[in-house]
Amino acid sequence: MKKIVLYGAGKRCRGLIRILRCSDYKVETILDSDKDKWGKEIEGYKIEPPEKMKEFSDTYLCITIADYDIIKDIRVKITNICHYGLEKEISYNKLLLEIYENNIEINRIILEKKFAKKGKKQSILFGCYNGFILGGIEAWTRSICESLIKRGNENIYIVSGQGDYSVPEQLKCHMLYVDTYKERFQVDSIKNHIKIILEKLPCKVITTQPDELMLAAHLVKNSHPDMVEVISTIRGSNESIYERYLGFRECADIYIGVSQDIREDMIQRGVEPEKIYTMSVPFPCEKVLTRTYTEDNTRPLRIGYAGRMDGMEKSQKRMDLMLKLMKLIGDKKIHFRMELAGDGPVREKMEKFVYDNRLNEKIHFLGRLNRSEISDFWKRQDICINLADYEGRSISIIEAMGNGAVPVVTATSGVKEDIKDDINGFIIPLGDYRMMADKIACLAEHRERLSEMGRLAHDAVYPKSLMESHLEFWEGILYK
Predict the structure, then answer these.
(1) 3-state SS, one letter per residue, for 225-272
(2) 300-359: per-residue pLDDT in tens?
(3) Are 86 and 79 in contact (CB under 8 A)?
(4) CA triple 325-331-335, angle to 5 deg
(5) What distance in Å separates the CA atoms of residue 342 and residue 374, rounded to the nearest whole number?
(6) What is the three-state SS of the chain?
(7) How far out from the chain centre does Cα 247 lie?
(8) Sheet holding 228-234: strands in order across?
(9) Which among 181, 176, 230, 225 is positioned nearest to 208, based on CA atoms?
(10) Among 189, 162, 188, which residue's Cα sits nearest to residue 177?
(11) What pLDDT band is residue 1 in, cutting at 50, 70 and 90?
C-alpha cells in the first residue's frame, strides 16, 4: 500500500479521495493553507496545516489544486518550510492515469468486450461534455458535426452527458448520452465512457479538454492500440491549461491548437512538432463587408464586449479591469456608448458599479445573445474590446473583426495572427487598461480611421472564416 498526502481541501480533493479508495494508495492526511479549514474534516480526514508535511518526508504528495500559480507557491512553501524534496510529488492527472490504468475491474470490462475487428467502419466520436448551451466549443462541435454529416460522413457521433439538449433534427440519431457526475473523473463515469467507446470501435475520439472521454479512450487504447486514436484539441493557453494536458500526455495521439502560439508553447514543453497542428475556427462572415461607422463626433462612439463575465482579479476575462476601463473612459469625457453581451457571476456587481458611478446612460448590459444575433451586435459596434489575461484564440474577437468592429484587445494567444497593431486594430499589453483607454480616445478623436481599420480587420479574418477549408483540414485528420 502506497502512502499519499493530499494538498488542497477543495472539491477536487473530495472527489480524488473517493477515487483513491479503488486504488493501492492510502491517504495519510489532508493539508491546506487556509487556517479556517484546519481541524475540519473532509471525507473522514482531518485537515491540517502545511507544516504537517514535515512528518511525511518520504510520502507521495498530490497537490489537488488546479491553478498552476498556486501550485508553484505551494511547492516553494513545502520545500522551504517542510524540507520536502518533491521527488515523490505526483500531479493530479498523472495520479488519475496510474489509478485507472491499474484498476482491475476497468481492465476486465475492456478485455471482456467482444467485437468484430474486420470490416466495421470507423466511428468518429466528438466530446461535448456540456451539451450545446455554453458557447464557442459547443457551437463548434455542433456545426462541424452537422457539416461532416451533410458531406456523407454518417459515422459521426457526439458524446455528451449534461447541459442543454436542444438537439437539431439532423443530429438526434448521432447523440451518445453518457451518465456523468458532478465530481469529475469518478469511477462509474469512466466506466460509462468506456462502454460507449467499446460499442463504437474502431474509432477516433476528439476531445475538447482533458476529461473523462480522453481518459476512457486512453484506457481502451492500452488494450486495443490499433482500434482507438485520440485527437485532443486545445482551446486555452495559460500554464494551468498546459499542465492539465501534459499531465495526460500519454493519452493523446495528436493535438490540434486553435492558434500558432499554442502550438509553439506545447513544442517548448516537449511535444513533438509532428504531433501538433493548428486550426482556425470557422464562423459566419460576409465576403463583402456592408456596414456604417460612427464618424460624426456628435454621436457616441460605439464600444462592444461579448463574452463571459466570469470574475475579477484572478479570472480569465478580468472584469475588474473592465470596470476600471469604464471609469477611465468616462473620466476622459469620451462621447461613447458601451454594450456588453453575455452573462456571468459578476454581472450584478458590474451593473451596480455602473449605476454607482453614474455611467448607466452610457453602459448597457444586454445579457446572453442568441448566435443569430451576434453579427448584428458587432455591426453596430465601432470597436471591440477584450481585457482577458489569456485566451486560446478568442472567437468573439474574430467574429467582431469579421463584422468590421476595430479590435482593441490584450495580447492573448492568437491575436497577432489576425491583428496588425495600428493597422487593423490595437494590441495592448496584458492588464494595461490605461493604454486601452488611450487607444479608444485616439479612435474617438480620429473617427475617420474606423472605416479603414474595420475593413482591414474584416479582410484579415474572412479567409479563415470559411467552413469548406476547415472541413478539408478535419477530413485530412480524420480519414487519413
Answers:
(1) CCCEEEEEEECCCCHHHHHHHHHCHHHCCEEEECCHHHHHHHHHCCCC
(2) 999 999 998 988 988 889 999 999 999 999 999 899 999 999 999 999 999 999 999 999
(3) yes
(4) 90
(5) 11
(6) CEEEEEECCCHHHHHHHHHHCCCCEEEEEEECCCHHHCCCEECCEEEECHHHHHHHCCCEEEECCCCHHHHHHHHHHHHHCCCCCCCCECCHHHHHHHHHHCCHHHHHHHHHCCCCCCCCCCEEEEECCCECCCCHHHHHHHHHHHHHHHCCCCCEEEEECCCECCCCHHHHHHEEECCCCCCCCCHHHHHHHHHHHHHCCCEEEEECCCCHHHHHHHHHHHHCCCCEEEEEEECCCCHHHHHHHHHCHHHCCEEEECCHHHHHHHHHCCCCHHHEEECCCCCCCCCCCCCCCCCCCCCCEEEEEECCCCCCCCCCCCHHHHHHHHHHHHHCCCCEEEEEECCCCCHHHHHHHHHHCCCCCCEEEEECCCHHHHHHHHHCCCEEEECCCCCCCCHHHHHHHHCCCEEEEECCCCHHHHCCECCCEEEECCCCHHHHHHHHHHHHHCCHHHHHHHHHHHHHHHHHHCHHHHHHHHHHHHCC
(7) 16
(8) 175-177, 156-160, 123-127, 203-207, 228-234, 254-257, 276-278
(9) 230
(10) 162
(11) confident
The whole-angstrom distance between residue 414's C-alpha and the CA centroid of its chain comes to: 14
Strands across the sheet containing 383-386: 363-367, 336-341, 301-306, 383-386, 406-410, 426-428
Q: Do the beta carbons of residue 409 and residue 385 sit within 8 Å?
A: yes
The C-alpha cell of 220 is what?
481502451
Distance CA 143, CA 139 (A): 6
CA-based nearest residue to 461, from 242, 254, 280: 280
- Residue corresponding to grid cell 496588425: 420
d(C-alpha 76, C-alpha 6), whole Å: 16
| Those residues with Cβ within 8 angstroms of residue 351's Cβ, 6 or more apart along the chain or in another chain | 365
Indicate the burial class of 218 (C-beta count within 10 angstroms; 0-12, 13-18, 19 or more). Answer: buried
Q: Is the pLDDT of residue 134 over 60?
A: no
